[in-house]
């Protein structure tokens, strides 16, 4: 990929805090105009990586460019292109919603009347007009997140860092944040998003870097990551629990594959053979079950979930 | 199966849904106003501090009560013993005690910097392309307002107690101006301290151990000529004593231009050294 199409190119980023290697040699290539997911458990080094890329922390080693501008030598140019929504709301809790947006709009260079107008417009677009005069400390988690993102697009950034934007949000607020992220990317902004939720990375990100203990342990599209840990599987939920052992035998013969009994007492999971067409194997499995008189309530066919990928990858590293 | 709706906090004041079309229009403007000037950004940060005073007015209480307490305590407790009468002593004490209480309240700047810098909002400020010292200068500008308020209250209380400035209104205003210049400059010690220490408590204890000797070993309460000979040159030459000499002179109408000049030089020095250290610490965080 050519240099110009990259929003971020980082090589060997390292940051140590005392004896803790928070980030231990991270390489990233983030294509412009996409959502790039940085996925990892708590303490994996996601926030430290983002803070270095947003010019908030100086790396101990390694280098990075943001749209071709050097992070260290040209920090001011980097700052003029990025916005950061930190893990803990990057807002002034003592001030009201509108005061926060006016404050930041002024600092982005808007004159006072224009700042007030831009602030009011953003509140309206984010459905927060009713809370304009309320102190941020009285906002709910979802409202706070939205105001935080609103503040990040006062001036449309070329690159937006979202550090765990949905951690602690209820499902509805989370869906709204996802909608906002999709809209922002559709308008041309690159988003680097950190998350501990595989579903979130799967939903939003075009490419994902999996980070654990300060290193990138896997990188690729969600599909690539899933197929890297093996073929998909068939999960069958039976009508009668006492048919389970029978079903296991039928499936094992039909697919020539390993069939596991799940924790759920009425379901079994069969691994698919990697070489053969997924749909054909699925059809065969269903046909055999029907012929054998096994009653099936629910049937699912698919790639391994990112959860499985994640556990497989992190276990591999620990082993 | 029945689904029961539960009221959560976010449901109680549920925000309206995000308006995607509106959001798109806002994103598409592509407006990029020129970065604000150094002066504008500092002023915006000062405005932020003033808003905080508006939302949390309690923070003004100690800054206003403390000076009055100091004035009353020292005048009526020591006046008789030191000057043989409270009215005479007040005439000597007021400019000094004003310097003491206001310079002491500059310590709060370090604490608020320390609290503020560890909050998420500081991360956002530091990713903006603004004049780097702007947030600090903003605090200090808003603090000047508080010092001026404290000065006015002390002066008013002094007048009620019988203080009369021989330097007239001009002398008093110039004296207060000199005090504010010094406080602005001296506060850079605290902004630096606020940035390099781990907690606000550390800031507090370090500042206390600097401020107590510095203000008591001075000409604020007593004439240094009553002190042992070896101590006098030390006491007479601290920046605080020089400042007190300048302010007292201006209030009394017999200004010593030497001490005013020395105070201005000290102020320049504090800004140069601790301003530099502050910005370096701010950039390194």
UniProtKB/TrEMBL annotation, chain A:
The lineage of its organism: Bacteria, Bacillati, Actinomycetota, Actinomycetes, Glycomycetales. Keywords: Antibiotic resistance, ATP-binding, Cell membrane, Membrane, Nucleotide-binding, Translocase, Transport. NCBIfam families: drrA. It comes from Glycomyces harbinensis. It is a peripheral membrane protein. Residues 8-238 form the ABC transporter domain. One of its GO terms (molecular function) is ATP binding. One of its GO terms (biological process) is daunorubicin transport. The keyword Cell membrane applies. It is found in: Cell membrane. The keyword Transmembrane helix does not apply. PANTHER family: ABC TRANSPORTER ATP-BINDING PROTEIN (PTHR42711), DOXORUBICIN RESISTANCE ATP-BINDING PROTEIN DRRA (PTHR42711:SF19). GO terms for cellular component: plasma membrane. Belongs to the ABC transporter superfamily. Drug exporter-1 (DrugE1) (TC 3.A.1.105) family. This is ABC-2 type transport system ATP-binding protein.
From TrEMBL, chain B:
One of its GO terms (biological process) is response to antibiotic. This is Transport permease protein. Keywords: Antibiotic resistance, Cell membrane, Membrane, Transmembrane, Transmembrane helix, Transport. It is a multi-pass membrane protein. Its main location: membrane. Belongs to the ABC-2 integral membrane protein family. Residues 58-285 form the ABC transmembrane type-2 domain. It comes from Glycomyces harbinensis. The lineage of its organism: Bacteria, Bacillati, Actinomycetota, Actinomycetes, Glycomycetales. One of its GO terms (cellular component) is ATP-binding cassette (ABC) transporter complex. PROSITE patterns: ABC_TM2 (PS51012). It is found in: Cell membrane; Membrane. It comes from the Bacteria. The chain crosses the membrane at residues 60-83, 89-115, 136-163, 169-190, 202-222, 260-279. The keyword Nucleotide-binding does not apply. GO terms for molecular function: ABC-type transporter activity. InterPro entries: ABC2_TM (IPR013525), ABC2_TM_bact-type (IPR047817), ABC_2_transport (IPR000412), Nod_factor_ABC_transporter (IPR051784).
């Amino acid at each position: 990929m050519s240099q110009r199409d990259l929003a971020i190119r980082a090589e060997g980023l390292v940051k140590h805090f005392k004896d803790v290697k928070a980030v231990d040699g991270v390489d990233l290539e983030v294509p412009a105009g996409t959502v790039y997911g940085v996925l990892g458990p708590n303490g994996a080094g996601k926030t430290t990586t983002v803070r270095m890329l947003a010019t908030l922390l100086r790396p101990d080693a390694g280098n990075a460019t943001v749209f071709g501008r050097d992070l260290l030598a040209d920090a001011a140019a980097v700052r003029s292109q990025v916005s950061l929504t930190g893990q803990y709301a990057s807002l002034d809790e003592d001030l009201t919603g509108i005061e926060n947006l006016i404050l930041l709009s002024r600092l982005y260079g808007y004159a006072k009347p224009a700042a007030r107008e831009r602030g009011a417009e953003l509140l309206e677009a984010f459905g927060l007009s009713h809370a304009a005069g309320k102190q941020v400390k009285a906002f709910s988690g979802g409202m706070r997140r939205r105001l935080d993102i609103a503040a990040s697009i006062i001036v449309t950034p070329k690159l937006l860092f979202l550090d765990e934007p949905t951690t602690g949000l209820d499902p509805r607020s989370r869906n709204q944040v996802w909608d906002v992220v999709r809209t922002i990317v559709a308008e041309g902004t690159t988003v680097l998003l950190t998350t501990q939720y595989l579903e979130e990375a799967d939903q939003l990100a075009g490419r994902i870097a999996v980070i654990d203990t300060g290193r990138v342990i896997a990188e690729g599209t969600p599909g690539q990551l899933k197929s890297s840990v093996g073929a998909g599987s068939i999960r069958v939920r039976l009508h009668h629990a006492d048919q389970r052992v029978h079903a296991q035998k039928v499936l094992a013969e039909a697919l020539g594959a390993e069939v596991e009994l799940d924790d759920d007492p009425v379901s079994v999971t069969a691994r698919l053979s990697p070489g053969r067409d997924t749909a054909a194997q699925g059809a065969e499995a269903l046909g055999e079950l029907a012929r054998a008189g096994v009653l099936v309530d629910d049937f699912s066919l698919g790639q391994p979930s990112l959860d499985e990928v994640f556990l497989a990858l992190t276990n591999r590293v620990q082993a | 199966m029945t689904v029961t709706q539960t009221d959560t906090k976010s449901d109680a004041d549920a925000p309206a849904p995000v308006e995607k079309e509106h959001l798109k229009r806002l994103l598409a403007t592509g407006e990029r106003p020129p970065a604000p000037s150094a002066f504008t950004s500092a002023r915006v940060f000062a405005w932020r501090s003033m808003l905080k005073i508006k939302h949390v007015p309690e923070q003004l209480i100690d800054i206003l009560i403390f000076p009055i307490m100091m004035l009353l305590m020292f005048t009526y407790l020591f006046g008789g013993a030191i000057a043989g009468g409270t009215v005479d002593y007040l005439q000597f004490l007021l400019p000094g005690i004003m310097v003491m209480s206001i310079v002491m309240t500059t310590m709060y700047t370090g604490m608020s910097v320390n609290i503020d810098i560890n909050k998420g909002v500081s991360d956002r400020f530091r990713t903006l392309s603004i004049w780097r010292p702007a947030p600090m200068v903003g605090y200090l500008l808003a603090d000047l307002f508080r010092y001026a308020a404290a000065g006015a209250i002390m002066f008013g209380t002094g007048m009620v107690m019988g203080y009369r400035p021989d330097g007239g209104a001009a002398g008093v205003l110039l004296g207060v101006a000199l005090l504010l210049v010094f406080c602005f400059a001296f506060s850079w010690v605290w902004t630096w301290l606020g940035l390099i220490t781990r907690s606000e408590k550390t800031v507090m204890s370090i500042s206390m151990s600097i401020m107590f000797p510095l203000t008591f070993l001075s000409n604020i309460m007593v004439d240094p000529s009553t002190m042992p000979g070896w101590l006098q040159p030390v006491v007479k030459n601290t920046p605080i004593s020089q400042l007190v000499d300048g302010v007292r002179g201006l209030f009394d109408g017999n200004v010593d231009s030497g001490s005013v000049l020395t105070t201005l030089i000290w102020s320049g020095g504090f800004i140069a050294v601790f301003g530099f250290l502050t910005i370096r610490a701010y950039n390194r965080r």
